[in-house]
């Protein structure tokens, strides 16, 4: 994956705008990662896990039970109407992929139902106090 300092401003602004279109049922973040491939930039967006602190589920990692995004709100961020596909395969994470141009640059966006298997929590929820704590998402993957 690409480090944040190597990502062009237009792509960072696009990701920030796209993250704002998501609705999550629990205080969580939208994680994302990008890389520059043969045909241009490719980006992945996904809900991030929340770590439970305290109670019977102490240490468990959960995803928000409600996850929604209006695809129309994201497609208008592209220069012109992009190609939109939905993919559900037993061996892969279910996703909507959006392929088009943003600020004249090729972008293939993957909106995934779940985070990558090795994704660490970006938020900790303390069931005893009802408070949330943001955790460091790391240098390679970001959360917004």
Our estimate of the beta-strand percent is 35-45%
Q: Compute the average pLDDT.
A: 86
What structural category characterises the helix and strand content? mainly beta
Count of alpha/pi helices? 2
Pattern of helices and strands: HEEEEEEHEEEEEE
Terminal CA distance: 17 Å
Tell me the overall shape: elongated
How many individual domains? 1
**Within the largest sheet, what's the order of strands?**
7-8-9-3-2-12
Q: Which consecutive residue ranges, at least 5 long each, have pLDDT under 50?
A: 139-143
Oligomerization state: single chain
Q: Could you tell me the number of beta strands?
A: 12
Rg for CA atoms: 16 Å
Helix content: 10-25%
The biggest sheet, with number of strands, parallel, antiparallel or mixed sense and barrel status, is: 6 strands, mixed
Description:
- The chain is mainly beta.
- It has one domain.
- 11% of the residues lie in helices and 41% in strands.
- The chain has two helices and twelve strands; from the N terminus they run αββββββαββββββ.
- The protein has helices at 9-19, 71-75, and strands at residues 22-24, 30-37, 40-47, 50-53, 61-62, 67-69, 83-87, 95-102, 105-112, 123-126, 131-134, 142-143.
- The chain has a six-stranded mixed β-sheet, with helices on one face. Strands 5-4-10-11 form a four-stranded mixed β-sheet, with no helix packed on it.
- Strand 8 and strand 9 (105-112) form a beta hairpin.
- The longest helix has 11 residues, at 9-19.
- The protein starts with 8 loop residues before the first helix and ends with a strand.
- Mean pLDDT is 86; it is low at 139-143.
